Amino acid sequence: MKIKKGFVLRQLLGEYVVTGEGLERINFNKIISLNATAAYLWEKVQDKEFTVGELADLLVEHYEVDKETAFKDSEALVNSWKEASLLED
Fold first, then answer.
1. CA-CA distance, 39 to 33, in Å (whole number)?
2. How far is it, in rounded angstroms, from Cα 3 to Cα 84?
3. Contact call for residues 87 and 81 (beta carbons, < 8 A)
4. What's the rounded Cα separation, in Å, for the pair 33 and 54?
5. Fewer Cβ close by (within 10 Å): the C or N end of the chain?
6. Alpha-carbon separation of residue 78 from 14, 22, 38, 72, 85 (angstroms)
7. What is the per-residue pLDDT across 22-79, written as a single tens digit (0 to 9) for each?
């Protein structure tokens, strides 16, 4: 899977948000807020193909978390990005 083109991560007033690039893509009801960990993962996989397992590996490398927890958290994050239509297969 991959993050769809046209979506960018921005930091606004200390918060991380994903918005559409260009006014025609912005739906202010659909701005997605990310915590610092999700923003870290977004930055690492932006413009790349990735799997849930690869996100989990990034979490294990960067944070003190076990592989099982990292995988579950990565899976939940991917599901939320899919629900928000931010990913393509």
1. 9
2. 11
3. yes
4. 22
5. C
6. 23, 24, 10, 10, 10
7. 655 555 556 789 999 999 999 999 999 999 999 999 999 999 999 999 999 999 999 9
Residues 20, 24: Cα–Cα separation, whole Å: 8
CA dist 71 and 60 (Å) reads 9
Is 4 within 8 Å of 26 (Cβ atoms)? no
* Burial letters 15-33, b for 16+ CB under 10 A, else e: ebebbeeeeeeeeeeeebe
CA dihedral 67, 69, 37, 81 (to 10 degrees): 110
| The pLDDT of residue 32 | 87
Can you tell me whether residue 76 is helix, strand or coil? helix
Helix (H, G, I), strand (E, B) or coil at 56: helix
